[in-house]
Amino acid sequence: MRERMLAGDLYIADEQRLIDEHVRATELMTEFNATHETAGDERRRILTELFAEFGPDAWIRPPLYVDYGYNTSFGARTFANYGLVALDVAPITIGADCQIATNVQLLTPTHPVDPDLRRDKWEAAAPITIGDNVWLGGGVIVLAGVTIGDNTVVGAGSVVTKDLPANVVAVGNPARVIRQI
Asked: Annotated catalytic, 36?
């Protein structure tokens, strides 16, 4: 099932290896979320262990929530404020110099529309890619399969359901481009 998950195919998340990997991520999240503001070196150690890549001078404020951690990469100097949810069943790639406001959700999982498949616990995922120097406002939700281009700003409370090009401002639900930068 893990190979199916990583390939973006339908899978069921009850395989022992996936359970063990999620438990590992939960242990690291719990450790990170319990750290004190002055524990910078300890926080960086945990985040470097949790994520596939955690670039130089990148920073996250707890609390933080992930599914696995190993499917998420943060570029250099990227900052995520309180309450980031990064459900990384598929890869989440965040570029350099990004600003991620409070309570942002990056959601790679999807579920079948077919009720029988859902009842049987099948699910899938699609990657999220966020370019360099992107600003996601407070409460932004980015859905599975979305790419956001470099320098783009997504307004607070927006739900990004489709790709956004580089150098634009997008707002709303669903997020729509309102102007070029």
From this structure: no
Rounded-to-integer distance, Cα 163 and Cα 149, Å: 8
Per-residue pLDDT tens over the stretch 64-88:
999 999 999 999 999 999 999 999 9
Q: What is the mean pLDDT of residues 110-136?
A: 97
Q: Which domain holds residue 96?
A: 2-180
Active-site hit among 111, 121, 162, 179: 111
For the chain, the average pLDDT equals 97
Query: Under a CB-based contact definition with an 8 Å cutoff, are residues 78 and 95 in contact?
Result: yes
Q: Could you give the number of structural domains in the chain? A: 1
pLDDT of 132: 99
Q: Where do the H-state alpha helices sit in the chain?
A: 2-7, 16-33, 40-50, 115-119
CATH code for position 126: 2.160.10.10
Sign of CA dihedral 130, 7, 51, 80: positive
